[in-house]
Amino acid sequence: MMQLRLRPHDCLGVAVAAVVLVCVLAGKAAAATEDARGLAAALFDLPKQEVSVGPNEGDPPARAVRANGRLVGYLASTWEVAGSVGYSGKPIDIMLAIGPEARVVGARLIEQSEPLLTIGVTKADVARYVSGFEGLPLAASVEERSSHVPPIISGATVSSGVIRDAVIRAGRAVALSRGFLGDAGQARVLRSGFQQADWASLTSEEAIVSRSLTVADVTQALGASPLPAGVGQPDSLFTELHAAVLTPPEIGQNLLGKQAYTALTSAIEADEHAILVAGRGIYSFMGTAWRRSGRFDRIELRQDSRTIRFTSESHRNIQELAVDDAPDLRETAVFVVSEDSGFEPTRPWRLSLLVEKRAEGGAVRSAAFDLHYELPERFIVKPETQQTDTAQPVLWQENWRSSAPAIAFVVVLLSVLTVILVFQDALARRYQLYKIVRTSFLAVTLVALGWWLGAQLSVVHVLTFAQALRTGFQWETFLLDPSVFLLWSFVAVALLFWGRGVFCGWLCPFGALQELINVAARRLGVRQIEVPFALHERLWPIKYIIFLALFGLSLHSIGLAFAAAEVEPFKTAITLKFMRAWPFVAFVAVLLAAGLFIERFYCRYLCPLGAALAIPARLRMFNWLKRRPQCGRECRICAKRCTVQAIHPDGTINPNECIHCLNCQTLYYDPNTCPPLIARAKRRGRRLKPSEV
Description:
Elements: H1 8-43, E1 51-53, E2 63-67, E3 70-77, H2 78-82, E4 93-99, E5 103-111, H3 123-131, H4 142-146, H5 157-177, E6 188-189, H6 199-204, E7 208-214, H7 215-221, E8 237-245, H8 249-256, H9 258-267, E9 273-280, H10 290-293, E10 295-303, E11 306-311, E12 315-317, E13 331-337, E14 349-358, E15 364-373, E16 380-381, H11 383-391, H12 395-402, H13 404-422, H14 424-428, H15 431-452, H16 459-471, H17 475-478, H18 482-497, H19 501-507, H20 509-523, H21 533-539, H22 541-556, H23 558-564, H24 570-575, H25 582-597, H26 601-605, H27 608-617, H28 637-641, H29 663-668, H30 675-684
Antiparallel strand pairs: 1-2, 2-3, 3-4, 4-5, 6-16, 7-8, 8-9, 9-13, 10-11, 10-14, 12-13, 14-15
């Protein structure tokens, strides 16, 4: 084996390096403390020289802030306390100053990577929104707190909700754990979770406590009076008493067995607790008088100055315990104690065994022997856990409750679209009805889905989903916006049934805007430019290149990817309704102007979202668009009239480019336009009806 030998000057070098490392770390720690001190002084509005800040410690972690030695509150990070994550999947970190009166004294934005900064909202806007939480009462009800929450950031409703939720949850968690809220002292017994355990392991962690008394112990406590004959020698076992709280399943189910424990817990109320008392020896803790009087006079439960006596109504008989290594017990009983008695099982209590002896002359001597019990901490749910989870409704659930009208509208819209798609042949046979339905649906998509609800799907959603898969997927992130979630759910199913064209051709507000503008341009006589197919198919890949570039950039920096996603005009035209800086509006104007001459110019060549949807759409299971053998060989009418040139010269439809507008299907069923149908009509000697096609 090779041995490492250090020479004296090597040891000196190692020592010097260690000292330098310690100094560097100490310097960084001092700098961090100094930064926290300055931040605390600013948020608590105190002179910096009077402020001292403690270490970040506790559960949840927070820094104690003192002014001239007096505690003025705590500093806490929403990321460290509540794990606040934004719609981007990245942390939102806000530093909160929480005062003893359970109020947010101040709040400052530390870090955020939300896509809201790509829709015209600056970091200063977010910082002002965060600072607006100053004075928020953490002890108030949800309704009362809502009046103290600053107005949401226009155009960033979801992100505003994420920030609000992070502030309230983190603030309440710290206030509860530090005793700033009135109900901070309340805790409850853990009623879930089970692991196999035996008598020895439960005894070792004091989930079961025991006490043994000899005859000599009792004789001495009773004043050295001799006990009646036959009770045994002084060192004989007088009694061995055991006690445990059975409410936690890991204690109760292991001791009683699953069947008996289930029967017990189902028979008692939610605020009641079961206590096991077991014993052996020559002295019975139960006695026999309780059968006549209904009261157990040999044991009682004491907690602080309160004494709780057991009765026959609270008694549950147990024949034997389920654990194999339990001692050979003489008697076992379970007593049910209600919350009305004032008993708090999460706090220390004691079981008192009462022994009496009647002396000569009729005098009665008595002694009490206490068995002390304190429920192990791991069986106690701390107040910050139970209170924080219920104090503020889960953000996504709150969003869904408050968005009932929008959800109803989206569900109806998607149901109508489903009917259109399933019965598309019947619609395509009726051209005039098709035009009315098509135009009306696009108008509703633009005005209601886009400008009213702001439910414009974006490549940002795709990048966010990919980022979530890499860093830890959480459904809550995608449930924050109900309308967007419903649309994405529908689009995911539609990709398998019809392809990407269902979204691009029917549910994209910006796509609807382009098509409606082009329809108006045609009616005004604007001449359309027909792009040669050879050039057209070479322009197709541009949108795929853009999407791959954005995806690759998101792997490096999601923030940069969101900024680069401005290649999408959706935010300017739909989300912000053109209320944005002129360069963004000019960019959209150029795209829409191009769409006057080339229908859906942006959709055809530049849309990264369309490219992203086209990739999984290759898995679609059905081909709903009908073609004839003559298509592309004898007739190219559909190819010439396809609004996005998705039909190749050979007559095949490119599903990656098709927007499923059904225009080609109206031609397929038109007996006056489709050459094969015209030829069939000539052979029959009469004009065909659409229903005969």
